[in-house]
Amino acid sequence: GEILKRKQPATLRLLQQRRDHRPIIHSIKVAIALVLVSLLYLQKDLYDEVGDNAMWAIMTVVVLYEFTAGATLGKGLNRGIGTILGGSVGMLTGLLSQRAGRRANAVVLGISIFFIGAIASYTRFIPTIKKKYDYGVMIFILTFNLIAVSGYRGEEIVKLAGDRLSTVGMGFAVCVATSFFICPVWAGDNLHRSLVTKFENITVSLEGCLAEYFKTNNQKTAVKTKRSISNGYISVLHSKDADAAMANFASWEPWHGRFGFYYPWDKYLQISETLRQLAACVLSLHSCVQSVQQSPEWIRRSFEKPCTNLGEAIVCALSELGESIHKMRRCHSLASVIGKSLQAMAEELRTALIEPLPHSQDIGLVVERRKKGEEEEVMGGAGLGDALAVAAFAYMLLEMEE
Amino acid sequence: GEILKRKQPATLRLLQQRRDHRPIIHSIKVAIALVLVSLLYLQKDLYDEVGDNAMWAIMTVVVLYEFTAGATLGKGLNRGIGTILGGSVGMLTGLLSQRAGRRANAVVLGISIFFIGAIASYTRFIPTIKKKYDYGVMIFILTFNLIAVSGYRGEEIVKLAGDRLSTVGMGFAVCVATSFFICPVWAGDNLHRSLVTKFENITVSLEGCLAEYFKTNNQKTAVKTKRSISNGYISVLHSKDADAAMANFASWEPWHGRFGFYYPWDKYLQISETLRQLAACVLSLHSCVQSVQQSPEWIRRSFEKPCTNLGEAIVCALSELGESIHKMRRCHSLASVIGKSLQAMAEELRTALIEPLPHSQDIGLVVERRKKGEEEEVMGGAGLGDALAVAAFAYMLLEMEE
């Protein structure tokens, strides 16, 4: 337990330091990609090849470049598929409408733009499409519309669509090359790290709550400490959307580092969900600790030991789990051992609470004392259940790892 | 209280029914905008005017069209400002580099693209810019790059930039017209409604918890009811990001309906934050209700009345506040009256809990009984504090309204 506690702040600090440099590296990568793709204009031979279509390549780079490799790849594939499909449907529509004769041509085009536009826009509300293919559908609508109407103005549709596709491909290649091979930022790594950080945040909050509750009366807690307690669980509580987005990006990423293809990213989301429930428990524990009515100190002292024991067991279990996820190590018997020690601690606290205090006759005081203690216990119980659930998840996860 | 309770499910159902039609209407609006902007190609006079630059108008419509009017307007203004700034800087760079002579020209361009691209990409990480102007910076990079390199290929830069800007403007006008004048969907309305729904969700969850806890042993709760309890507070808990996005869009919206310019949308975010804290309380209350250890029925019965009284007072206060926000009515003395009745109820429960039960000698049992009751009280207390905070917020809000 001790070793873990000393190790973690260091990890945390390291992560925060590291985060500071990544925006600068990202900006330089974008700038390199822009210069590379501008060569299509600036270098004579290349310009002779592609001409003004080079514009599409520049546009592709600016629009596709996202912070993580997975997001860039996902957007790029969306753009590619959207361009191909939109181009094909646009060509078909253009060719069919040309057969309708000069007059009817525009009317046929207008009607097909209306219906295909409406249907494609509607599909963007379907949850599965909205989640992964929203951008692709947008590009489909754009390419379809451009190709269909360009044909009406006598341009050679097939050549136009082909040129557009090839320059989009060039832009995409530049994006992928710079994004994957110069200091890549993997969404999967971020998700992995953010999960480990969640364990750390909850641990910090829980330790803070215990320390706050059992501090002696003349100790004052610094505002900074209080803030770090609540920041811990609040950041975990509000992480749902960010996690979902990151898991989505991670699912686009190819094999990298210790993560294989088809890595079970949704397991990460499940663990996060469990941690959010645990964070909610810590939140209510903290609100009890902060409440105005507090039992006198001698009462608190009397059940300090079982409470801190249970608390430390939970903290230790969480650290252990976080560490094992961090290192992606299988924790062979970890789950059952931790589970058992937690259960023993919880039982100890429960016994201590049911035995009446020797020197208290007043029921009101006993109740006062019970109040806090029982809440600790309820929270502990909840924490226990959750820790076990997390252990089960972690176990599943690491089993799939092997 | 009764009238409100009957009214709310109806409101809720109405909102849900209404939501179903909006995607279809939105799709039709997008299709209309696409057809209108395609006329730039299909109508001969218009095409003679703008030529192939009509492409930019189509692109603008596809890319800008968002579900809410505020989001469309915000993106459109971002695109406009980004295009103007990017075009100006691009023109300057292009003209300056042309003075450098034929050989150095490309090098100067490459260097300026690198530095301006890197700096602009970096600004996208600054929180305030990321929040409201991210899209504008992207368009700035795009336009700057396109205009700067086009000049190198001998095209007339000033004309190019002007044409691009005017066609972007046309696309923007079509977007705004269809988005604002055909069944507009206002982000502000959505935010307002989602706040009212939050009050309803918490009320439903809280009522469900009380009913669940004080139900007789042979009553079984349907799985559906259980799910509706937890859905209530969970949807509130996870609403942070969606709310922030909606408030951002709403801040772009001009005067509409009952909302004026500079409507204090951030007050909505503050109220939501308070409601999220309250939802966390309901969550821990629910986990107590669901816990395996339960006190026997006769004990629960003995403090059913003060508990349900307090619960109903909180529910009533929440409904009242939700209703007053819904109708944007000032609740003159509401805050103080509700606050007082809540305080009285809380006091009643507290007294009931401190008096020992007449027919219980066993301290263990008393403790069991206390456990639940005290938790109710703690939650009630927390709820009280939050309700008062909400009342204070609502009061401020409605005062600004006047």
Most extensive interface, chain pair and sizes: A-B, 70 and 70 residues
Can you summarize the main beta sheet of chain A? Answer: none
| H and E string of chain A | HHHHHHHHHHHHHHHH
Work out the helicity level of chain A: over 70%
What descriptors fit this protein?
homodimer; 402 residues; mainly alpha; 16 helices; elongated; disordered C terminus
Summarize the structure in words.
Two copies of one chain form a homodimer. Chain A is an all-alpha fold and 402 residues long. Helices cover 83% and strands 0% of the residues of chain A. The first copy, chain A, has 16 helices and no strands. Chain A has helices spanning 2-42, 44-50, 54-64, 69-99, 102-123, 127-132, 134-152, 157-181, 187-213, 223-237, 240-252, 265-290, 297-302, 304-327, 334-354, 363-401. In chain A, α1 (2-42) runs antiparallel to α8 (157-181). The longest helix of chain A has 41 residues, at 2-42. The radius of gyration of chain A is 29 Å and the shape is elongated. Chain A starts with a helix and ends with a helix.
